[in-house]
Each structure stands twice: as C-alpha cells, then as structure tokens.
Design goal:
Elements lengths: L1 H10 L48 H9 L6 E4 L5 H17 L4 E5 L5 E3 L2 E3 L2 H10 L2 H4 L2 E6 L9 E6 L4 H4 L9
Parallel strand pairs: 1-2
Antiparallel strand pairs: 2-6, 3-4, 5-6
Length: 180
Amino acid sequence: MAKDVELFKAAMTDVRPLKGRKQPVIPRAKTEGPSKQPKESLPAVGATKVPPPVPQVFDRDVDRALAKGKRMPEAKLDLHGTTLIAAERAVTRFIADASEQNLRVVLIVTGKGTRLEGGRVFGGRIRAEFPGWLERPENRARIAGVRPAHPRHGGSGAFYVLLRRRSSASSRSLRATPQR
C-alpha cells in the first residue's frame, strides 16, 4: 500500500485542481510496523464442516428467460419499511413457503438502501445483510442460486432467488402409492 501511495503522489505532483474546485485529499502512507498474523486455530473435535455458500449462478435457461422477459418471478417479497429483524424472519418464512409450494423463481426486493445524511451516502442494512440470511442452513438447503434482478423487477435493489426442486419422492405420500 505504501508503494501505491508514493506512486500516486509522484504522478500527481504537477496536477492542479480546476478553478473553483478544492484541493484533493491525498492519503498518507501507513508506517509498516511488525505485522502480527493470527495463529490459525484447529477446529474442535467433532465440529461439523460449514456447508458451501449459496451459488451466485442460475440455471442458464431460467436466466435467459428472465432476461428476455419470457419468465416472471412466481412470487414477490417486498422488504421496504421493515426492520432488520422482521425482514430476516420474513425472508426465511417466504423461502420456506415458496419451497413448500414448489415454486422455482421468486423475487425478493430489499431496496437499494442508499440515503444521504449530513453529506454522506449510507448503504442499506437489509441489502447488506441479505446474503448472510441466505447462507443460513435452513435457507441454504432450499436455494439453488441468487442473482441481482433485471431493472424491470427492481435492478440492484432486488434479487432473483432460484429455489431447488423438491424430489418427487418427497412430494408424494407413501400411502398414495399402490402396494404390491
């Protein structure tokens, strides 16, 4: 990082700001002290492995159909105006219900969440926490993929969630199958 700052300063020595503009803030180089690298702890005996994260890719055919407008999300959840805790519960309940109804593609609107306070731009908490909610074991088992929505469905303030298909054995009752 120190090299980058020095290179930046060297490149900008003869640059002058435009008329009516303020002088840019040049970052200072951090002093390189002895770096302490944390020791890696060994996992506890009997600890379970963390399941792989929710994939960010979609089925190619579903992705193309959504992009061309030939397929629409089968259900929608709008989280505007909800608190962080209520939004988390709503997402978990919505994904569970959609999975039970055997839906394939759902739309979850988190909102862009950008707002201006005191001259600073703040990002949305729900949108920031949303990927973590999808990583929870109860949600991860039901989700096949996630991607940002098309602008007509909310753009960067919404996500398509591709749900896993339930196996045909789980959707049939054993009593309904004929016995030999």
